[in-house]
Structures are given as C-alpha cells and as structure tokens.
Write a structure and sequence with these properties.
The protein folds into two domains: 119 residues, no CATH class; 225 residues, Beta-lactamase (3-Layer(aba) Sandwich). The strands form four sheets. It has a six-stranded antiparallel β-sheet with strand order 2-1-13-12-11-10, sandwiched between helices. With 366 residues, it is of the alpha+beta class. The chain is 35% helix and 16% strand.
Length: 366
C-alpha cells in the first residue's frame, strides 16, 4: 500500500517551489515516482529530495529528522563524499587562477612530513600529479575503506581524528594500489591531501577557502556549511539524524570525514543548487574549466570518474553524479538539465534512493 505525502509535506513543496522564479506547483510525477522509495520501512526510514528543472524547484520529504520531529526540506545532512566535488571545484578554481597546475607533482604540493610518509610506503610522489589525485588515479590506498578505520570509529565514535592521523593510517594499513595513472581507485586519502593542498596554496583554512573560491554565500548557498571550522555553524536541531545498521550517528565526531573527502553539511536544496550552478557553468570563471573537469582525456579507459565527479549511465539515463557514505546522492542529467539531490536517513536505503532518482529522470525525460 502506498503512503501519500502528507498535507504538511505538500505545503512544504509549494513553499519551496516559490524559491525559483516562474516555478509551478510540484508535478504529480515527483510525488508518484519518489513515493516508491518512501514506502514502508521502520521508525528510522526517511528521505529528502530536491529537484531543479529550469527555473522550477520542488521537494519531497518523509520521515523524522529526530524522534518526534518531522523531517522538513530545511533539514541538513552530512553529505560525506559529495563534498569531493566542492573540493575538486576549489582546486580547479585555483588552476584557472594559475595558482596551481594539474601536472605539478605531488611532492611539490604537500608538506615534507606527508611526502616522507608516502615515500616510505612506496609512493613515487614525483610521478603522482595533481590531476592523478583529483581523478582517483594516483594509486593511493583508501584509509576510509579499511576495516581498521571502521573498527576504530565504531569503538570510539567521539574520537577527534586529525588529517595527519588519517594520512598516516592510510600508509600503515595499506600500500600503493597501482602506478600513477594506471587505474581508477577511489581514495579518501587522496582528497585529504587535496584539502591540505588548498590550505597551503591559499593560506586559509579549508572551510574558508572553499567558501570564498566557490562564492557559496554569493550564490545563496547559506545552508551549505562545514561542520567544524566554518564562518557559520550548524544548529544541532537542523541536522537530521542519520543511521547506519540501526545506529544513530548524529553524535559521531565529524572528524571521521571532514578534511576534503567529506565535511560539508547541507540541505538537499543547496546540494541540487550547487550541482546546477556548477554544471551550467556558473561556478568557474572560464568555460574551459568545466570542460576540463568533465573530460575523460588522459584518464584510464574504464574509469567512471572525472575530476571530482562521476559520469555514469543507468540504462538510458546518463548523469554526472556523486554519492556520500551516509546515504546521500546528487544527479545532473545533461540531456534535460534536471538536477536532483536526495538523502536517505538510513544508509541501508541508499539503493532505494538510487532507484527512485533514476526512475524519476527516466519518466521525466525518457
């Protein structure tokens, strides 16, 4: 049995539609298609979606952001690895300003102590370039996928991790996974290094550098905040509770995923809006920078990753996308120009999230 979106949610849909000039009331198709993902579940089941289609913006939500508190479109989520697109875009902004170049070796970009750690572990940091790190083709092991890391987090979710601690852990727990440029291998460790490179290049803390380079405030993305170290803070009540295997992770220290590979908290409206701005050429100063970001030139033939963003096909649905560990996802469909961002309150519902978003795009623009 389907559960229709409540009157409260419909009201929210209408309110958020007015955020965009010329917006119409939310189409029935959004409700009908996304309702499938919202069916059934337990007390922790919930979803938040936001769609941008031209000048129109509309949302759908279901569930509780916290016990007894209905989820609204204004609730924020830890977006985890979707942060990588923001990090990569910041690096590319520095490239178009000629503060960085993509062929610069990693050894010239990172502090000597990090370089030594990597060299001792067998990495040729003179051969690894900035482009390799951006495209996950540097051969860097991923500390984030290590069972050691998962076990450590579960044992002490309130531990405050440093970037140095995580980079060192990556060299202790694993070895190089390939030669530079040989193959795609997703690595949070690489994006920790990119966050570090941004700070070294700009002389600013990562949250401030990203906010300034991407002009988040100028673009009205005021509900996009680094959970720690930003100019504004996340009000605890506005951040939705996100669950893994039934465990509420709301109290986990944000440092488990904070230094460039993750770290941002945002509403789905802001995530969709950023992707819409990025992929319609409004983040970079030069059109060729976006072309560079999306180009597969020089990358391994089988790689699904570009520079901070995935390019994927789901049957006939072609999208640029990124997902996040906690159960977040954003699609931009270049053929239609539609952008949709979604979050599941339970990580285990990520597959439902993907299915619903693909189905929506397939029905909207087959």
């Amino acid at each position: 049995m389907k559960h229709p979106i409540s009157a409260l949610v419909v009201g929210l849909l209408l309110v958020f539609a007015t955020l965009f000039s010329g917006a119409q009331a939310p189409p029935e198709q959004l409700s009908a298609t996304l309702e499938g993902a919202m069916e059934g579940g337990d007390a922790h089941t919930g979803f938040s979606f936001f769609v941008i289609d031209g000048d129109e913006g509309y949302c759908a939500v279901k569930g509780n952001a916290a016990p007894g508190t209905p989820l609204t479109a204004g609730h924020m989520f830890r977006i985890a690895s979707i942060t990588k697109t923001y990090t990569a875009a910041t690096v590319l902004r520095l490239v178009e300003q000629r503060d960085l170049t993509l062929d610069t070796p990693l050894s010239d970009l990172i502090r000597p102590s990090y370089d030594q750690l990597l060299r001792i572990d067998g990495y040729d940091t003179d051969a690894i370039t900035l482009k390799h790190v951006l495209s996950h083709t540097a051969g860097l092991y991923d500390h984030g996928q290590s069972q050691h890391y998962i076990d450590a987090i579960m044992a002490d979710p309130q531990h405050i991790w440093t970037r140095s601690e995580q980079i060192q852990a990556g060299t202790m727990w694993g070895d190089p996974v390939g030669a530079p440029g040989e193959k795609f291998f997703y690595s949070d460790t690489g994006y920790l290094l990119l966050g570090h490179i941004i700070e070294r290049t700009t002389g600013e803390p990562l949250p401030q550098a990203v906010r300034e380079q991407l002009r988040l405030d100028e673009h009205g993305l005021t509900d996009t905040v680094w959970e720690r170290g930003d100019s504004s803070t996340v009000v605890g009540e506005r951040r939705a509770h996100q669950f893994i295997a039934g465990q509420d992770t709301h109290g986990w220290d944000p440092s488990v995923d904070m230094y460039g590979g993750g770290g941002l908290v945002a509403t789905m409206r802001d995530v969709a809006r950023f992707y819409d701005l990025l992929l319609t050429g409004k983040i970079f100063e030069k059109p060729e920078t976006l072309v560079l970001m999306l180009s597969a030139e020089g990358l391994p033939a089988a790689s699904p990753y570009r520079l901070g963003i995935f390019e994927k096909d789901y049957g006939d649905v072609h999208v640029y996308e990124h997902g996040g560990f906690w159960g977040t996802l954003v699609f931009h469909q270049p053929s239609s120009g539609i952008t949709i961002a979604g979050a599941a309150l339970q990580q285990e519902d990520y597959a439902k999230l993907v299915k619903a978003m693909v189905a929506f795009l397939a029905k909207k623009h087959p």
